[in-house]
């Protein structure tokens, strides 16, 4: 199997972590299909939007993160034929595989909210979900002295479910320090009935939002934007009512789904309304096509989509793929571990770690992570990026 052809779709966090591990295990025929010349460390975008990190710290050339001995095909997948075991690329190449890793991340669907795409980057609307606009978030926050600030989260799974609210806390804390928070009305629009999926951290976050005087709108969604008038329509799905709110700045999180080619193809999970890939939640292997594995944001796993989750998924996907190539049953299991570093102030953070059962899974002993901590903020700003570039992407952590 050392010469087996393994195609990895996506050279983001998940794709590179798995490719590095397969290479370390001695596979020669690993190829990563990735159209972007740039690799991003997306968790830093929250701090870019909060004025606490430069965008350049989140970016490296794709060539520098592609493991030695792995072939980078600079092209994108447009379809997979799992019966024939081939991937069709945008340039019309057919890549045959013995094993396939699906890791193309999510698709950002800005156009699902009328008016949002037109207003983004202009009309006082920004988003940390696009590196082109994260810097604009900070310009808007820094310039605000009074008025209404709206922060939104769409319905459905999104990558880093904490990110839509973290930026609200960073902004509110900045305004507090400037002495203008009392002149700001801050509205956080959440589609869920609670502030966070894990109840213990939810209790802490409710206190954080209350401390800043943030109006949290539960079970609510942004459904339209009128950029010229600076008006957002917010629908309360529980009450069945809509309200038009005038804003002076808005941070929007776009609705997300699997990439269309995946959502519309044979590898999508019919149980996922968003078209994410169908895999066994413990082995990360397709129940229909035993040579196919999926992980990261594109996989339909009942846990929070984060890079921290990918860190625990990658060794499982790599080990089970090697088992498949050797004709063995999958030997490794993923338990749903995910982690969300919840920045709650300019130098404070809560590290929420939990699994499929929503059981708290602290990985740092003797540290009370239900308390907002400065050492955890330093971990997020400096420790985790170093762990990412130096160890994770090399298959060492
Ligand atoms: P990605 O890293 O997004 O990689 C997908 C790759 O696939 C991309 O390189 C893309 O170019 C490529 N691709 C797309 N389509 C195709 C195609 N057709 N063919 C080939 N390649 C394709 N996680 C944390 O753990 N902690 C955090 O604090 C955190 N904060 C975040 C804050 C923000 C604002 C955002 C946006 C994300 C955050 N995340 C955080 C989430 C984290 O970045 C993702 O969960 C992680 O990157 C998922 O890895 P992935 O490989 O599945 O997707």
Automatic annotation (TrEMBL):
<protein>
    <submittedName>
        <fullName>NAD(P)/FAD-dependent oxidoreductase</fullName>
    </submittedName>
</protein>
<dbReference type="GO" id="GO:0071949">
    <property type="term" value="F:FAD binding"/>
</dbReference>
<keyword id="KW-0874">Quinone</keyword>
<keyword id="KW-0285">Flavoprotein</keyword>
<keyword id="KW-0809">Transit peptide</keyword>
<dbReference type="InterPro" id="IPR015904">
    <property type="entry name" value="Sulphide_quinone_reductase"/>
</dbReference>
<keyword id="KW-0560">Oxidoreductase</keyword>
<dbReference type="Pfam" id="PF07992">
    <property type="entry name" value="Pyr_redox_2"/>
</dbReference>
<dbReference type="GO" id="GO:0070221">
    <property type="term" value="P:sulfide oxidation, using sulfide:quinone oxidoreductase"/>
</dbReference>
<keyword id="KW-0274">FAD</keyword>
<dbReference type="InterPro" id="IPR036188">
    <property type="entry name" value="FAD/NAD-bd_sf"/>
</dbReference>
<dbReference type="GO" id="GO:0048038">
    <property type="term" value="F:quinone binding"/>
</dbReference>
<dbReference type="GO" id="GO:0070224">
    <property type="term" value="F:sulfide:quinone oxidoreductase activity"/>
</dbReference>
<feature type="domain" description="FAD/NAD(P)-binding">
    <location>
        <begin position="5"/>
        <end position="308"/>
    </location>
</feature>
<dbReference type="InterPro" id="IPR023753">
    <property type="entry name" value="FAD/NAD-binding_dom"/>
</dbReference>
